[in-house]
Every structure is written in structure tokens, then in C-alpha cells.
Amino acid sequence: MAPWTPQPAGLQEILQTIHESTTTSATVQRNITEKLNHFTRAPEYVAYLAYILSAMTQEEDRIRTIAGYLLKNNARLILSAPVDVAEFVKSAVLTAFNDTSIMIRNAASQDIVAFLGVLEPRNWPECLQHLVLALDSPDFDLQEAAFNALEKACEDYPRKMDVDINGTRPLDFMIPKFLTLSEHPSAKMRSHAVACLSYFVPINCQSLFVHIDAFIACLFKRASDDEPSVRRHVCQALVLLLAARPEKLMPEMSNVAQYMLYSTKDKNENVALEACEFWLTFAEDQELAPYLHPLLDQVAPTLLDCMVYGEDDLLWLDGDAEEDNAAVPDKETDIKPRHYGGKSHGFERDANGAETSEPSKPRIGAYGQELLDSDEEDYDEFDDDDFADEMTTEWNLRKCAAAALDVLAVRFSGDLLKVLLGPLKEKLWSNDWLQRESGILALGAMAEGCIEAIEPHLPTLVPYLINTLNDSKPLVRSITCWTLGRYASWCTQPRSEEHKNQYFIPTMEGLLRMVLDNNKRVQEAGCSAFATLEEDAGDELAPYLEPVLRNLVVAFEKYQHKNMLILYDAVGTLADAVGRSLQNSLYVDILMPPLTGRWAKLKDDDDDLIPLLECLASVTIAMGPAFLPYAGPVFERCNNIIHSSLLQYQQYQQNPELDEPDKSFLVVALDLLSGLIQGLGMALEPLIANSQPNLLSLLTVCLKHPQAPVRQSAYALVGDLAMSCFALLRPAMPGIMQELILQLDPEPKFEFVSASNNAAWSVGEVALRYGRDDLEFQQWVNPLISRLIPILLHPKAPRSLHENAAVSIGRIGLMHPTLVAPHLPEFSQAWCQALYEIRDNEEKDSAFRGLCTLVQTNPAGIAKSLLWFCNSIIRWNQPSGELNQMFQTLLTGFKQHDEAGWAAQVATFPPIIQERLAARYGV
Asked: Annotated region Disordered: where (predicted)?
């Protein structure tokens, strides 16, 4: 086969475009991007780029380098390229890798890493060979370049490197080679060697573990290397070993621990940070707690010292740290993109079932960074990303130390406080503001784990913190806000009038003052901490609503762009917390003008509309009928946003070259309509009836939307419409039900769970509203039940889906007992297991009345699950009068039907069930 060669015309066109791409005009840039995207359709495009990079030495290095970067970005195209094109690209990139120009070599090196990843080493073994041979080259630059490429490949896709190629494993000879090179006279080479070796630890690579002792010996040898980057990789490797193979480190733990303590204090921040990660990893592994416990008295004070701001941090924070900057507009780059997930319907469980409340909204996360989407980042997981997002710096030593202290507090609680009490007091009462600030951070970091041990000290600490809100340093005020937020639940406990006057009211007043601080960073921390206080205080805030609202309204005038988004969240949380107390016309008159003012300024496609709509959804539910004067424009705008979003999506489906539209507008508009309907119910009838296009036809389209969060919010809206204004929903039910039945999937993909959840919940709400034996609903009973039962019985379906399916089966059974009762033996045990831990509420009550109706209709159906049925009955704390009577009638009936059989069966029940059945129902 003849080797590939370029066509002059094609080459000229691509070269010309690359030359033009160095221009700065935005219009030209746009045309170029379109042109370059157009080129990607040509099967030979990557070969032209490789040719320019490797062979066109008459061109400037800059032009050839751009070709190299375009090649890297389009590496995937090699998979669909003709054979001659692919072969040419592979050899051209290796040629460029040997170029005399360092720019060209660097570009080629990045191309190699990209192509090795796409093709995988098994399909390009000669490249691996080329790189490994270059490690022995007399030319040091080439040696280093090859090792640099290998390190990136080992880091990016270690599993692809760990393969068998024609009966040999490249790593079997590469790993001993890396071990030898860890002794290389050049620090760069030693650093690459240790790094490459460490990346194979997490994947349990056998080629490395054969040499594990030599590897650990190599780490100890390099531990005192003069070069910080080598020491950093040693620390990193020890962290990875601790996570993957702790048993290999435990015999050496006293040496490793001393080395890591020493390295945590290293002058080089990168080394200290990697060493600090060791303590975070150590603390996270519960099984290693016995090994960590004896080290607490050394580790905890070391971490405490790492939490003081370093000089670099303060340089980064310059603007935030010193001045009154409230009037300085934000840079758009400071504002992180938000991901908006819709609302999901779940249940609260009793103390023995894990969940008891809705997950709290994201705020300023641990140690002062903002967490914008709590759905994706569970703070307890201590994922580095959780802390990586402080307004200014990346993940750093201070945050890592605080995160490690946080996990240590959860792990060792009072024992940790014993060790730190002395050093903490010293810091908190130090004259150096940096020491004070770090002590306050530590106090906040320990709040969750050490709360019981710290509680006796809170009557001293909380007034100290409230007083520190007057500190002249903005960084001290802002961390104090965060720490007060961490203790908000203690401050807000309704223990006594005295507790309220000494702690709750001063904390609330102090944080409100910080909401209006003249420093943006303090405003942000104050507003976030105040939102946490609102959540914990709930209705306790109701008597103070007027001053709270007046302060928040001043913030609407004062805040710049970024803090405004946090202010919306604080207002929405306040509405959730105080609920119907917000209906007072005085409060409506204070709060609504600034919100409608913001609302009027924002266009339908402005991203800031999203958090505002989210905030309004909470406000409308809380204000209820008092919101009616504002409902018309809000309803109409939501309807328009839904309509235009659906049209945009339709255009995108017809032309996939367009960017996929942002679903967030659609989701928040649906959620705000849910809020309006919960707050105003049938008062919305004229708006729904006259909507153009009709809301219910738009809703039916949303139920089929390919994006799960849209379906999720659409099903929530169906359920809310059923509850508050069923008469308006009913005409659209045949179309809705068709989609709804399809959405009930026993094993939904992870991202579809919430949509299935809301669909399962809304079915039950709809069934109740149709009423007993309704003919229209009857046609759907069998299709629904035949999907809900498999969900309930599916071992892998999430718990929330089991619960929603069970409630809906119960409610459908309540309304159509004769159709559902024959299925009772099939699902009764799973049904009782799904619901016995849920807190008493109206939904659970109607579901259980349904189950009892089914048992009355088909008593034999419960025979095999009698133990589970009785267990779920005695788990009720306060069933409604009607439900309690149903329990009594059924249990008495069972006993009277066959006294001896009943007595024999009850005798096999656990004692607690026997006692409660006898005490409550006399059976």
C-alpha cells in the first residue's frame, strides 16, 4: 500500500486557516472555528495536521505548534481514519517528537499522550517502545521529553498501560526500569520515575506489586531527596499506598508517620500539601483508626499549625482581605456556573432509618469555599473537589488540614478535643490575627464531630465568636461567620428564654450585621451562615421577620453580582423556614418590591433568572394567597419560558450542530409553577385556562423531554396540580398517563431515578383525586400496577423509589381494591418492608388505609407476610382514628377467625411485636 501524501490544495487551505487563526478579531475567529469544525469531517484532516507539524520545517514553529495542538484536540478522529492516514499520523508524530525545536517536541509529546490514550498502547506498541528506548538516550533533553510523555500517560490512563501485548506485558520491564531511574543524577528524571510508579498503585497493578518491597525501599531512599518535586511524589506515593495497600505500610508506620509529620511542615507548600493528604486519607479509613489514634497528639497540633494563612494565600486574597470593597463590581470570572437540579419527592424516616430531612441547600462549604450544588457534592465524602473552590485559591494546605481535622473530629470526637484544647485556646486568644483566624477555622472544622465534647464550652465560645464579628480584619470576620454557622443548630435550640436571649438573638443580629458588611467576602460568608441559621431555626425566626426582611432588602441594594446569587438563596431558605408566617401583608410589602424589581430587570435568557425563579418558588409557597397580586406576570413568564425552551430544544433536535439548550430555565420555570400551585391552588384557574399556549399541553411535552431533570420537575408539577387543582388537570390526564406509565421503570439509569420517583409519587396523588372505582382511572390500574410491583420487588431499585411505589400501590388499592387485591400475595411483604421506617404522615396514612382495604378484600393475600404486616402496624406512633380502627378490625378478625392458629403464629413473633399488639390492640 502506497504511503499517504498530502494534496497541495487541501494542504494550502488548512495552512491558510491556521495562519488566519493567529488574528485577534472576534468575527474572524468565529469563522475560523466554523472552518476548523468543517475540516474535521474530512477523513484525512489529521494527516494534514501531522504533516504540517512534522514535515513543514519552512513554516514558523508557532504555526506548526498550532497544527500540533489541533491534532491533539482531534485525536479521536484517528479511530475512523483510513489505514494509510492512521499509519502516516503515527509515524509523523514520532518524527516530530525528535525535532530540534523544543516547541515542536512539546506539541508532539502532547499528541503522543493523546493518541496513546485513544488508540491504547496495545494498538500502538511501537510508540511505547520508542519512548522507553529514549529513556536510555545520551541526549538528556530527549530522555526527559520521553519520560514526561510517559508520566502523563501513566497518570491519565494507568489501566490502558497495564496490558498484555502479544504475550508480553510492557510494564514488566518498564517498572524495573523506573525503579533504576529513581536513582538518576537528574532531579527531573528522579521525579518522573517516582511519579510513574505511584500511578500504578491505585489500580492494583501486578507488575508493580511484584516489586512492592523494592518500591517502598525506593520511596524511603528518595524521602530525603534535595529536590522538592521528588519529595512531593514520594509523599503522593505513600498516600496512594495507604489507600490501596495499607498492610504494606503498617509495619513501617512509626517511620512513615514521623516522615509525614516532618513533611507536613516542609517549607515547600506542594510537599506539605501532599503530606497533609496522607492524614486526610488515614482519617477517612475507619479500619485504620486504631493505628491513627496513638498518633493524635502529634498529628492534630501539626494540622492546626497548617491552617494559618500562608504568605501566598494572603497575596491571592489581597483585595478581599483588607478593604471595604462592597461597591467594586465583580469580575464575571469570579462567578461559578451553577448546575440546577429539580426537586425530588422523598419521605422522612425515623431515627433508625438514615434520612430524616431534606438535604440542606448548598452554601459556603467547608472552610469558606462555595459549594454551589449539594446534589453532586456530598460534604461528608471529603472529596477534594468539595474544598477546591474557595473564592480565590485552589485546594491548598490550609483547606486540606481543615478537612483532615474535620474527619479526625468525626472519627475521634472527645479524644481529639482533649489533645487540641490547650493549643486552640492559645490561638483563639492570640494577639496575632492570623493565629486567631486559624483557631476559629479549626473550631468550625471540628464542629460536626466534636459537638458533644465542645458543647460544655459553647456558652463561652459562642459569645467569643459573636464578639469577634467586630474584628477589624475582614478575613477574621468572614471565618467567624462560617464557624457560627457550624454551631447554628446549638444556638437556635429552643431550650429556654435565657438561652434564646444569650445565644440565638445575638447570633442572629451579629450575622445580619455581617450580611450588610462593607467587605464582599464577609457579606458572602455572613449571608451563607445566616441561611444555615434560618434552616436550623425554622419557625423560631417568625417573631423577628420584620427586622430580618428589612436587612435582607438593604442587601438587594448593596450587593454585587456574585453575592446577589447567595442572597436569593438566603431569601428562599427563609421562606422555607418560616412557611405561612410570611403571609402577613407587612412582610409581603417589604419583600416583594425588591424581588419584582430584580425580576423586571432580567431577560428571559439571563442566567441570573434561574436562582431568582428558584427563590420565588419558595416565596410563593410560603406567602400562599398573599402572593396572588403578583401571580399573573409570574405565571405568564414561566409559561413563556417553558414554551420558548421547548421550541429551542425542538430546533436542536432537528439540527444537532446547534449547541444543546440549557435545561435549567425549563426546570426552574416548572418548579416555580409547582410553587405557585402549592401556594394558590384553584385561584390560578383563570391563568391556567387562558394560558397561551395551554400550560397542560406544554406539560405533556415536558413529560417526554429527553433530559431527566426536565421530566423530574414535570412529574412534580403533575402531582402538585393533582393535589391543588385536580379539576383543571383532569382533561389532560389521558395524554399524561400514557407518558407516566412508560416512566415507571424498575431499574432506571442512575440519572433517571428522580424522574421515576416523581412519576411514581404523582400516580398516587392522581389516583386519590379520581376517587373510588372511577371508570376513567380503572383503565390504567392494571398497566400501573404491573409496573409498580416490579419496582417494589426489584432488589437494586433505590430505596426512595421503593417507598414511592409502595405509597402509590396503597393509594391505587384504596380507590380500586377489587382490581389490586388479587396481587396482594405478590407484594405484601416488600410493601411493608418499604414503609415501616417512614415517619407518620398523611401520605403514609392513605397508603396504609389502602393496604388494609386490600387485606379486607383478600385476607388470604397477607397470610405469608403476617409478621411484616404486624411489624409495620406497631411501628406507627400516631395513626389517624380511621386507620387505627382498620388495624383493630383486621387484627381482631384474624384472631377470631382461628384463635389457636393466631396464637401459635404470634408466639413466633419477636417479643416487642407481641407486647405492642397486646397493649394496643388486645390481640
From this structure: 326-365
